[in-house]
Amino acid sequence: MNKRDAAETKARILTTAERLFSEVGFDKARVDDIAKEAGVNKALIYYYFESKGEILETLFSSLVEDAKRMLVESVEKTSDVLNEDNYKALFDVYIRFIMEKRKILKVAIAESVKESSSISVVMELGNLIINAEIESIRKACESKGLNYPEDKKEILVMEFFTGLMPFICFALFEDQWESYYHMSEKELCEYFYKAFRKTHLAAHVPK
Q1: Backbone phi and psi for residue 98, each to the nearest 5 degrees, phi listed first
Q2: Is 184 left (phi over 0), alpha (psi -120 to 50) or beta?
Q3: How far apart are CA 159 and CA 94, in angstroms?
Q4: Each residue of 166-185: pLDDT tens digit?
Q5: Which DSSP string do the residues of 136-169 spell out, in sequence order?
Q6: CB 98 within 8 A of CB 171
C-alpha cells in the first residue's frame, strides 16, 4: 500500500469511527463494526492504531489542532472584534466550525462528563478559545481607549461558560431545537446571534 492509499485508508477509518462513536457512544462502538463499515480488515485498524482508545485520542487531537488553526486565522483577519460587521463575521466562522465538528464534539462532551474520565479535550478547546478571544478583545478595547477587566478568573469563567459552551450546545441541540420549536436553521442562527451579542459581547464592553 503506497503512502497516498495508506493516508486515505487511515482517514476513512477515523471518519467511520467518529460517526459510530457519535451514534452509539464510544463504549458501545466495536472495532469490528468500524472495520466493517470502513471496508477494511480489522487487523489493518490495529496496524494504524494500538486500540480503540488511540482512535479516539487521534480524533480529539485533530479537533484541537483544527480549532487552533481556525482561531489563528480568524483572529488574524479580525482587526476590531467590537465592530458589528467584524463580530458577526467572527461569530459565523465559529458557527461553521462547530457545526462541522458536531459529531466529535458530541463524543467529547459524553466522555468528559464521565465520573472516571481523564478526557480534557473540552478544557483544551476552552483554553484555546479563551486565549485567542481574550487577546483579540483586549486589542480591540485598547484601540478604542477602553479599559479591559483585570480579574483573569472572571474572564476565564465568562469566556468558558458564556462564550464556548453556548456554541457547543448549539451544535449538539440544533436539530432537536428546530424540530421541537418549529424553527428554520436560519431563524435559529439569527436568534442565537442576537442572544449571544446581548450576553457574551455585552460582558466585554466596559460600562
Answers
A1: -65, -35
A2: beta
A3: 14
A4: 999 999 999 999 999 999 99
A5: HHHHHHHHTT------HHHHHHHIIIIIIHHHHH
A6: yes
Integer Rg of the chain from CA: 19
Cα separation, 116 vs 18, whole angstroms: 21
Q: What is the sign of the dihedral through the CA atoms of 41, 28, 125 and 93?
A: positive
C-alpha–C-alpha distance, residues 206 and 146, integer Å: 7
CA 182 from chain center: how many Å? 26
Whats the size of the chain, residue-wise? Answer: 207
> Hey, what's the cell of 130?
479563551
Using the 8-state DSSP alphabet, how is residue 161 labeled? I
DSSP 8-class letter at 2: -
Round to whole Å and give the CA distance between 147 and 207. 10
Residue 36 C-alpha cell reads as 466493517
- Output the CA–CA distances (angstroms, integers) from residue 25 to 18, 28, 74, 107, 113, in the order listed: 10, 6, 32, 7, 13
Task: Provide the whole-model pTM.
Answer: 0.83
Please tell me what DSSP assigns to residue 114: S
pLDDT tens readout for residues 27-52: 999 999 999 999 999 999 999 999 99
Grade residue 58 by pLDDT with cuts at 50, 70 and 90. Answer: very high
